[in-house]
UniProtKB/TrEMBL annotation:
Coiled-coil intervals: none
Domains (record comment): The nitrogen atoms of the two glycine residues in the GGXR motif define the oxyanion hole, and stabilize the oxyanion that forms during the nucleophilic attack by the catalytic serine during substrate cleavage.
PROSITE patterns named among the record's database cross-references: PNPLA
Protein name: Patatin
Keyword hit for Flavoprotein: no
A GO molecular-function annotation: hydrolase activity
Disordered: region residues: 409-429
Matches recorded under InterPro entries: Acyl_Trfase/lysoPLipase, PNPLA_dom
GO biological process, one term: lipid catabolic process
EC number assigned by the record: 3.1.1.-
Species of origin: Flemingia macrophylla
Keywords: Hydrolase, Lipid degradation, Lipid metabolism
């Protein structure tokens, strides 16, 4: 190894004819100022190192923006879809871009159950290169097809599987590789009795982990107590799973999404902790558990209880920066104890109730103290978060260091991402 220079290096003395890549130049400047000179704050570096390149301030490489969507909840996904429609409208208004989409302002997305269907609608690439659906169109898709997608028992549903037919028509031959950003969509594999996470990162690494988006959506929303499990294979036929609802294992996928981003250094090279994240987590309303009389109801209890546990854990992980870097949108429980949700018989009824939920005061998890109702409404929180997303988008236009480096690699025998569980290996055939 070559000896390190003992005197300060003035990068301005480099011969002008020597072409230096801008990214290499910036990285060398960081190493020079932070390690050779031992400076840890921008003020000392500026005052004490003449002619040296200014060291980027904390978060100069930006924050990774993550969207997470729960399973069905009391509103069958309408609350999350309505939240995204409001957020998209805010982004278009604040950015001045009438064509802005949710996918354009997030770097990764995770969804479970109907939340996984929403993620697929918003992040799958269409023939024109843009996402198949805007948030407004995804909301209409859920409301127009609520009866086909809803959890309803019956032998006829098991045979005809109207939801799966709808999903095949919607996504065609699109696979996980056809998403515009990294996505994570969980289910539970009955073969290995373990969670299975569909991941774009894994699909790009190996064909054995690439699945059709219609199958992915059917798998994450297959209620085991009603329509039964969904048997499926990867595109190349090598990996087989028998899947049920992602809510069984991971109704709130926020923790899984954060873990994936922090460990996926290929696509998020400078993301080292929760302070480097902007996370939006969307719930779908809390069910009335006083009226639970079916196996499906007990599945919802388990799923929504797990969602609250994940919310508490994530809030604790974010600590002091949870107020700005982590936003959770969920009903505050008042409507779950009323007759409003129970009396909803049409999609229009659920739309009205979801709008009321968005107008409620937001509920935040407090470290070791449960939850508290804050002054801002859910709509206020979405408006503020839209501002943070746009701020990050604008910062990237002038940044040299990349916040994200999306992978478009060809299939490889080795898999380096962190998304897929061990169950994927043991269920290959």
């Amino acid at each position: 190894m070559a000896a390190m220079p003992t005197s300060p290096i003035n990068l301005n003395t480099i011969d002008s004819n020597f072409e230096v890549d801008k990214l290499t130049y910036e990285i060398f400047s960081i190493l020079e100022n932070n390690f050779l000179f031992g400076y840890n704050d921008a003020e000392n570096r500026t005052n004490s190192v003449p002619n040296a390149v200014n060291f980027p301030a904390k978060h100069a490489v930006g924050k990774v923006r993550i969207l997470c969507i729960d399973g069905a909840g009391a509103t069958d996904g309408i609350l999350a879809a309505k939240s995204l429609a409001h957020l998209e409208a805010c982004l278009r208004r604040k950015s001045g871009d009438p064509a802005a989409t949710i996918a354009g302002f997030f770097d990764a997305a995770a969804g479970s159950g109907v939340g996984g269907v929403l993620v697929a609608l918003l992040f799958t690439r269409g023939k024109d290169g843009r996402p198949l659906f805007t948030a407004g169109e995804a909301l209409r898709f859920l409301t127009d097809n609520r009866r086909r997608l809803a959890r309803r028992p019956g032998v006829l549903r098991r045979v005809l599987r109207p939801a799966e037919r709808l999903l095949r028509r919607t996504f065609g031959e699109c696979t996980l590789k056809d998403t515009v950003k990294p996505v994570l969509i969980p289910c539970y594999d009955l073969v290995t009795r373990a969670p299975f996470v569909f991941s774009r990162a894994d699909a790009l690494e190996m064909d054995g982990y690439d699945f059709k988006m219609s199958d992915v959506c059917a798998a994450t929303s297959a209620d085991p107590s009603l329509a039964g499990p969904t048997a499926m294979r990867s595109v190349d036929g090598r990996t087989k799973i028998v899947a049920v609802d992602g809510g069984v294992a991971m109704n709130n996928p926020t923790a899984a999404a954060i873990t994936h981003v922090l460990n996926n250094k290929h696509e998020f090279p400078f993301c080292n902790g929760v302070s480097d994240l902007l996370v939006l987590s969307l719930g779908n309303g809390e069910s009335d558990f006083n009226a639970v009389k079916s196996p499906s109801g007990f599945v919802r209890i388990a799923g929504e209880g797990a969602s609250d546990m994940v919310d508490q854990a994530v809030s604790m992980a974010f600590g002091e920066c949870r107020m700005s870097n982590y936003v959770r949108i969920q009903s505050n429980g008042i409507m779950a104890n009323s007759n409003k949700v129970k009396s909803c018989k049409t999609a229009s009824d659920l739309l009205a109730v979801s709008e009321e939920m968005l107008g409620q005061k937001n509920v935040e998890s407090v470290l070791f103290k449960g939850k508290k109702v804050v002054e801002n409404t859910n709509l206020d929180k979405l408006e503020l978060f839209a501002g943070e997303l746009i701020k990050e988008q604008e910062r990237r236009k002038t940044s040299i260091l990349p916040t994200v480096v999306f992978k478009n690699a060809s299939p490889s025998p080795s898999r380096t991402s962190s998304a897929t569980t061990l169950s994927t290996l043991s269920s290959s055939c």
